[in-house]
From TrEMBL:
GO terms for biological process: acyl-CoA metabolic process; fatty acid biosynthetic process. The keyword ATP-binding applies. Keywords: ATP-binding, Ligase, Nucleotide-binding. Residues 50-212 form the AMP-dependent synthetase/ligase domain. Residues 21-32 have a biased composition (Low complexity). It comes from the Bacteria. This is Acetyl-coenzyme A synthetase. One of its GO terms (molecular function) is ATP binding. Residues 1-32 are annotated as: Disordered. It comes from Brucella abortus (strain S19).
Length: 368
């Protein structure tokens, strides 16, 4: 990594080094300055009366390493690491036994808590003061469930291995929280939304989320270790994520640039369709991708893991498509739905939509 240091500040020599997923011979390395975690975590953790913090993310993932290990230890805050596998019962046991008051994790983990039902959650309802989510967009139904079944507000945050958390809904900062928003720029960063020409755009215009390097004094990342960094150019670091500014300055996440679906001239974010599907009681998990189509460029296809007690019939597929059409719009509903037993995910729980797309493309090629 190449890390920059604030003027007059002693450089850190024991940086945190991470390698991204993928074949070992072409993994770019990134590193981060521990002081950045300390500054961020000091703002994130909120009032001192919160006794125990638990980030259930794997420490092998940046979210877990930065904010389950490095950040808490730099501040002397009690943190919890669980060597056992993740289950809802195990999670509730630890919250109850150790008095966890601040919980962090990924939407995938929180949806598994939801799937265990409100009865399982009842024994720890009211124990959590706050919860935080990162890794993927936080679905609205998770927010409502946490409020109703655990009695705790859950806020979404956005970050990357290269950046740490840079867009946040902080529990410790006073600002409005809008459901479905990733939040606001972290103090110490200036964010922008860029069009295809690299120009900044205004509210309600989709583009690539970028960090204004010269006006972001807490930005530590200046490039990959012994690798080219094409995402840094023109004074910006481009994240590769498609977002849009809201009029209040917060950010709404649309999807990875390569996840956004183009159908009949419309740009459709998979997150919106997945969230609509998850509102249906038959759906435990969902992933949405664009499948090549000669007439519409792409069509929306959904992969659904059903809740217990439901059967994947053509009638249910039609019901789910109509459900999404009513919630969103006529162009955004899934024209194809496959019922599956599992979804491809990274070790940190992120859905690997690109593998689903690849399988669909290969299937079409074989048929042709």
């Amino acid at each position: 990594m190449r890390a920059r240091h604030a003027q007059g500040q002693r450089p850190f020599h024991d940086d945190v080094h991470l390698r991204h997923g993928g074949p070992a011979q072409r993994r770019p390395g990134a590193a981060a300055r521990p002081d950045g975690f300390r500054r961020l975590y000091a703002r994130c953790r909120g009032p001192a009366q919160r006794r125990y913090f638990w980030n259930i993310a794997d420490p092998g993932w940046a979210y877990g390493l930065y904010y389950a290990v490095t950040g808490p230890l730099l501040l002397g805050v009690p943190t919890i690491l669980n060597e056992g596998g993740f289950t809802a019962e195990n999670t509730y046991d630890i919250i109850e036994r150790l008095g966890v008051t601040s919980l962090a994790g990924s939407p995938t983990a929180f949806r598994l808590l939801m799937a265990a039902g409100p009865e399982s959650a009842a024994r720890v309802k009211g124990r959590l003061r706050v919860a935080s989510s990162a890794g993927e967009p936080l679905n609205p139904e998770v927010i409502r469930w946490f409020d109703a079944c655990l009695g705790a507000p859950i806020h979404d945050h956005y970050g990357q291995t290269e950046l740490g958390m840079v867009v946040n809904n902080h529990h410790g900062l006073e600002h409005p929280v809008r459901q479905g928003s990733a939040g606001y720029a972290m103090p110490g960063y200036r964010i922008a939304v860029l069009d295809e020409a690299g120009k900044e755009v205004g509210p309600n215009e989709p583009g690539i989320l970028a960090i204004d390097i010269d006006n972001s004094p807490l930005l530590w990342f200046t490039g990959y270790y012994k690798k080219d960094t094409p995402s840094i150019s023109g004074g910006y670091y481009r994240t590769g994520d498609t977002v849009e500014f809201e009029p209040d300055g917060s950010i709404s996440f649309i999807g990875r640039a390569d996840d956004v679906i183009t159908s009949s001239g419309y740009r459709i974010g998979p997150f919106d369709v997945e969230s609509a599907l998850l509102e249906h009681p038959a759906v435990n998990e969902a992933a949405v991708v664009g499948v090549p189509d000669p007439q519409r460029t792409e069509i929306v296809k959904a992969f659904v893991i059903l809740a217990p007690g439901f059967e994947g019939t053509p009638e249910l597929a039609e019901e789910l498509a109509l459900h999404v059409k009513k919630q969103l719009s006529a162009h955004a509903y899934p024209r194809q739905i496959d019922f599956v037993a599992e979804l491809p995910k990274t070790p940190s729980g992120k859905i690997q939509r690109f593998l689903l797309r690849k399988a669909e493309v290969e299937k079409q090629q074989q048929q042709n």
